[in-house]
């Protein structure tokens, strides 16, 4: 089974479970993939997003997926998305 990793943030937007771990778990349960297959798919998705997203969104999305700097990533993404609407 996929082990969850905890983030140590204290901000209002910090996640307690690593998003990549959650994605892998969902791929295992919902797409009926093995854990190794799910990890490969998650890496492909992360790489795809890194290639396709505009530069200002890459860092926040990568941070959200890996659990690094989640609070600031959410704030940055809100700022970027707010400009679109």
Radius of gyration: 14 Å
First-to-last CA distance: 40 Å
Order of helices and strands: HHHH
Shape: elongated
Helix content range: 55-70%
> Which regions contain 5 or more consecutive residues with pLDDT less than 50?
3-17
Number of helices: 4
- Mean pLDDT equals 74
Largest sheet: none
Percent of residues in β-strands: under 5%
Quickly give the structural class: mainly alpha
* Counted beta strands: 0
Summarize the structure.
The protein has 85 residues and is mainly α. The protein is built from four helices and no strands. It has a domain at 34-84.
Tell me what you see in this structure.
This protein has helices at 19-30, 35-52, 55-66, 70-84. With 85 residues, it is an all-alpha fold. It has a domain at 34-84. The chain starts with 18 loop residues before the first helix and ends with a helix.
Task: List the keywords.
85 residues, mainly alpha, 4 helices, elongated, disordered N terminus
């Amino acid at each position: 089974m996929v082990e969850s990793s905890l983030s140590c943030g204290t901000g209002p937007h910090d996640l307690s479970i690593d998003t990549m771990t959650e994605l892998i778990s969902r791929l295992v349960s919902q797409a009926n993939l093995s854990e190794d297959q799910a990890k490969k798919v998650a890496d492909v998705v992360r790489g795809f997003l890194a290639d396709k997203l505009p530069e200002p969104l890459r860092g926040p999305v990568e941070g959200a997926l890996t659990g690094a700097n989640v609070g600031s990533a959410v704030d940055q993404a809100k700022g970027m998305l707010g400009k679109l609407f």
